[in-house]
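Preliminary data (for renewal application), zinc ion complex.
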Amino acid sequence: MPKYLLAALVALLLCACAHQAPRNPLATWVPSDNFDPRRPVLVVLHYTEQDSAQRSLDTLRTANSGGRVSSHYLIGKHGERYQLVSDVDRAWHAGAGSWGAVADVNSASIGIELDNNGREPFSEPLLESLLVLLGDLKARWRIPAGNFIAHSDLAPGRKIDPGVHFPWKRLAQHGYGVWPRDDTPPAPPGFDAAQALRTVGYPVDDLDATSRAFRLRFRALADGTLDAEDHRILYALAQGWTIPADGVQP
Ligand SMILES: [Zn+2]
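Predicted structure:
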């Protein structure tokens, strides 16, 4: 075979194998430069519920007995960061659930798995490393503070991670996730907790499950049904009376 033909064949084969944006054969491809990557609008935090980052890397990259799962990032106990899926692609971490107007959370979010078995505090290097990553994601994708959420927030009754040990107040003090100010007034008489939960972003089709998810995030040590303190917190969140990013209360 002449050399130039061989070169052409090799080029053709390489083209066929290269990753290309899918184009619909039903239409003529007339590319426009006026576009950008799809923008994630939520960040969902998880714990791995496993005992090592290596095991979690395996789980997030293989077919498992319970089905395939993945996340965009995994942070290990020592603060090591791994990226498994590009920010602009859809990873499989959220499953069924919703947050605010977002009904398909996987399509709109970045998922971060944290190397924690759910039974012990998150390590300091992991948290420091997470704060660095969140700062990067918030800046690059312009994600509002209120859109950094727990897996348990979007899937009440089905998920409880990142669990009771996760320091949400500390995160809010850095500008990731919301936390109520201490000095807000009690909720007014006739306060509608379900409406406030909906305003904050929670799905409310199962109000009992959502109330438990809210408790887990904002008052993990309390028990019983929602009380006046829960209502004060919810009222403050629904009103936007949250602590500022520097953690200093006005
Ligand atoms: Zn999760």
